[in-house]
């Protein structure tokens, strides 16, 4: 019997992370690669892109976030809380950056104009599916993670730092690592309030 639903339940927003990992960096990269190839997309367009950061590269990312937000948050007291959050993400083992290759969507819009208005939404669907799939796969391997959105503030600096294509649009950042302090329980609305069934 598949443990898919249980894996989804175990996938939580974990904010207290350590730099440890129960699997090797190579295994993490292979996991992200395999999931990226397996996750579907509209018209099999495959606009999803991912970047995996470890070590110094991971620290550079979170330094960019910190420096960028420091320019936006002028109040020193308020920035302390922001800095604490960023430091917690930087304390993890690594980060997955999720991107949408906008050239793919533009090409689809040109080649299939009848669906032109829909393709940006289809790309967001594909991005969300990849994020959830990677998040769940990491949890299955004993790695906690959370999904962050410091884009678009950090987009230009991150693109320049890592030499990424200009057509790649940053969607989310996923810091991951061994969980230092598990997330507490959360309330879930009952399924019967959220799922309607007809014809059964």
Mean pLDDT: 96
Q: How large is the share of residues in beta strands?
A: 15-25%
Biggest sheet architecture:
5 strands, antiparallel
**Architecture per CATH nomenclature, i.e. the level-2 architecture:** 3-Layer(aba) Sandwich
Q: Please provide the ordered H/E string of secondary-structure elements.
A: HEHEHHEHHEHEH
CATH superfamily: NADH Oxidase
**CA-based shape:** globular
CATH topology tier name: NADH Oxidase
Number of helices: 8
Helix proportion range: 40-55%
Distance between the termini: 24 Å
Rg result:
18 Å
Number of strands: 5
Q: Which regions have little confidence, pLDDT < 50, spanning 5+ residues?
A: none
CATH class: Alpha Beta
Whole-number tally of structural domains? 1
Main location: cytoplasm
Keywords: Cytoplasm, Oxidoreductase
GO biological process, one term: cellular response to oxidative stress
GO molecular function, one term: oxidoreductase activity
Task: Please explain how this structure is put together.
Strands 1, 2, 3, 4 and 5 form a five-stranded antiparallel sheet that branches. Helix 3 packs antiparallel against helix 7. This protein has eight helices and five strands; from the N terminus they run αβαβααβααβαβα. The chain is an alpha+beta fold and about 200 residues long. One of its GO terms (biological process) is cellular response to oxidative stress. One of its GO terms (molecular function) is oxidoreductase activity. One of its GO terms (cellular component) is cytoplasm.
């Amino acid at each position: 019997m598949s443990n898919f639903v249980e894996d989804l339940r175990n996938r939580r927003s974990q904010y207290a992370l350590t730099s440890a990992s129960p699997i090797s960096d190579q295994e993490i990269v292979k996991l992200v690669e395999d999931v990226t190839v397996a996750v579907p997309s509209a018209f099999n367009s495959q606009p999803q892109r991912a970047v995996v950061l470890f070590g110094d590269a991971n620290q550079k990312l979170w330094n960019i976030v910190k420096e960028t937000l420091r320019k936006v948050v002028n109040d020193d007291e308020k920035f302390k809380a922001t800095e604490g959050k960023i430091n917690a993400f930087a304390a993890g083992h690594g980060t997955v950056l999720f991107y949408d290759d906008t050239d793919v969507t533009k090409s689809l819009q040109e080649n299939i104009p009848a669906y032109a208005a829909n393709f940006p939404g289809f790309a967001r669907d594909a991005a969300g599916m990849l994020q959830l799939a990677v998040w769940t796969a990491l949890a299955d391997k004993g790695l906690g993670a959370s999904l962050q959105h410091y884009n678009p503030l950090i987009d230009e600096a991150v693109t320049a730092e890592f030499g990424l294509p200009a057509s790649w649009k940053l969607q989310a950042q996923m810091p991951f690592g061994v969980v230092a302090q598990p997330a507490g329980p959360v309330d879930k609305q009952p399924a019967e309030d959220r799922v309607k069934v007809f014809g059964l």
